[in-house]
Design goal:
Strand order of the largest sheet: 1-2
Order of helices and strands: EHHHEH
Distance between the termini: 45 Å
Helix content: over 70%
Radius of gyration: 19 Å
Number of strands: 2
Largest sheet: 2 strands, antiparallel
Number of helices: 4
Strand content: under 5%
Shape: elongated
Structural class: mainly alpha
Length: 126
């Protein structure tokens, strides 16, 4: 478990929130593309694959929401620590409470794999 100072952990939280917003926007674009391709393709096999991608993008969106919620909870803990004693909080090392580093790494891995598969699918069928 990593221990970080207040400003580093806060910086990481802000960075993750911005990253997740970017991924959410990308998923919106990919979802729009899936819908467009579904309208254009009547082949059952292609539609099934597109449906699977749509479901996977929905799961990734839900995961983004969950990660954002966990980050917010950690931020709330940091705020509470500062409000309780700002000097002590500034000198304290905070644990990576919910293993967010590993959760974000896992998210990146799964998301990038899904993105690669989807883009390859689009190359193959377009």
């Amino acid at each position: 478990m990593k221990s970080l100072d207040l400003s580093t952990l806060h910086f990481e939280h802000n960075s993750w929130v911005k990253e997740l917003a970017f991924y959410k926007e990308q998923i919106k674009l990919y979802t729009d593309r899936v819908e467009e391709l579904t309208e254009k393709n009547t082949k059952t096999g292609i539609r099934e694959q597109l449906s699977q991608f749509m479901n996977q993008f929905k799961v990734q969106n839900e995961l983004i929401d969950t990660l954002n919620h966990k980050i917010k909870l950690q931020e709330d803990e940091l705020v509470a620590a500062v409000e309780a004693n700002e000097v002590k909080a500034s000198k304290t090392s905070f644990d990576d409470q919910a293993g967010m580093y590993s959760e974000m790494a896992k998210f990146h891995s799964i998301y990038n794999e899904l993105k690669t598969k989807f883009l390859r699918f689009c190359e193959e069928w377009m």
